[in-house]
Amino acid sequence: MHPVLIELPIFGGFPIHTYGVMLALAVFQAAVLMRKWGNEDKLPGDDLYDMAFWTLLGGLAGARLEYIRVSWPEFEGNYLMLLNLRKGGLVFYGGLIGAFVTFVVSARRRKLPIARVLDVVAPVVPLGHFWGRIGCLAAGCCFGREAPGLGWAVTFTDKHCWDPRTALANTEKLPICLTDPLFTPLHPTQVYEALYSLGLGLFLVWMRKRRRFHGQLILLYLSLYPILRSINELYRGDTKRGFFMEAQLGQLISNAQFLSLLIVLGSSILGMIFWNLSKQTSPVDGSKS
């Protein structure tokens, strides 16, 4: 584990977290790619940059809110920690939903063709997700099940630990870590997700010149990613993220798998809308879609 990339000798030691650096790389990459592909699709670059800013805020808010929802016991009695993004975590699906809603609202306000702008964003998301999961690996979060004898298992040994319930009152390193258990071979689920996110992103880049209608790229992403994520969930070991209706169904389906199902269903409805709109104009041309 390398949750802290470097500690600056200011303010008594200011840590630069690896996850934060990976997130910054993802944001920078997104800005460059959105500008490039937006120009190719004849979309206003200034509007895309402005939308990207608000979408980032919406994504962070959604990711934090979902983390709070599935990890509420960590914050009981210490509600100031709710807003401290440097302590705690973010949940990707919450961020995806928050970012999607914010992006669509921003596009509508600017009267931009939603399907076209979503196609610009579609490859950006999994390519950025790749960096995010590398950050997760460094932080030791989103870890996998125990995997004794697995040749490519990862074993976390670093004890950069903190307890969100007492972090404000105690600045010492505490014996509660993002990864539990330590010193145990685990499925590297962060690496699994980083690799299939990278592969999905490159596939969508390849599809950009081959799409048949506006909106096809975002539909492919919203259809394929949930399937890959649901498979990866079978190897996840951080059960604190919760399960859907656990009291009634037990640990049958994780929250992420349930959200995956909802997203696939939603993408099916969105697909019918985009397909009908595509019939009103020539393929990947015009502005009605």
Can you summarize this structure?
By secondary structure, the chain is mainly α. Helices cover 54% and strands 3% of the residues.
Structure, described:
The protein is mostly helical and 289 residues long. The chain has one domain (4-158, 172-278). The protein has 9 helices and 2 strands. A two-stranded antiparallel ribbon has the order 1-2. Strand 1 (4-8) and strand 2 form a beta hairpin. It is globular, with a radius of gyration of 20 Å.
Domain module count? 1
Give the mean pLDDT: 83
Q: How much of the residues is beta strand, in percent?
A: under 5%
Give the helices and strands as they follow along the chain. Answer: EEHHHHHHHHH
Side-by-side strand order of the widest sheet: 1-2
- Between the first and last Cα atoms, what is the distance in angstroms? 46 Å
Number of helices: 9
Report the radius of gyration as a whole number of Å. 20 Å
Q: State the secondary-structure class.
A: mainly alpha
Supply the key terms.
2 strands; mainly alpha; single chain; two-stranded antiparallel sheet; 289 residues
SSE layout:
Elements: E1 4-8, E2 14-17, H1 18-40, H2 45-70, H3 92-109, H4 114-121, H5 124-139, H6 189-207, H7 216-233, H8 246-249, H9 255-278
Antiparallel strand pairs: 1-2
Helix pairs in contact: 1-2, 1-5, 2-3, 5-6, 6-7, 7-9
